[in-house]
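**Paired protein data**
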Amino acid sequence: DAFIEAHVTPVAPQVAGRVAQLFVKDNQAVKPGDVLLQIDPRDYQAKLDQQRANLTAAQSRLQQAGAQFTADQARVGQEKANVVAAEAQAKQAEADYKRYQAVGDLGVSASQLDLAGTQARSAAAEVDAARNKELAAEAQASLDQASIQTAAAEVQRSEAAVRQAQLDLSYTQVKAPEAGYVTHRTVEAGAYVQPGQALLAIVPRHVW
């Protein structure tokens, strides 16, 4: 009687699926990286395509959020300019009204004084309205920044999902981890396999 010992390396899949092709048989010599079997890749390819589409959509939303922020920043600048202009008009109207009041009835009519007072009050109201518009524009710009952060996070998640889908697709090819001979093969083409399921083993060329 004789005994032979060797380091036996079990081979198991990392993804589930039906075995589409089996490329080896018992006692066949293989090299590291040789494809031992192919799990049906169609579901994993479809998932990768979907994740890539999701990434494209997420990138588009990020670009849109950035463009909207740029536009609303420009709006904030415009509203600030409108406030400055409204304040200048209000200051001028208030000065005119005070000047008319100082002149009194001898220099201006009552109707002119009333008109100047109305214009001063209207100009002050325009300042308030312009300031409210400026605040609204600044609030919208802040919301845009939050949208950019959300969209950027979504892009990162989608990129991670694409990388995982690419990895899963690569796992549909079960490859030899080292050189040796195929043994203990328990899988046939058409079988449905699960992650971690022992399919075969690799026995190295050197035994003792």
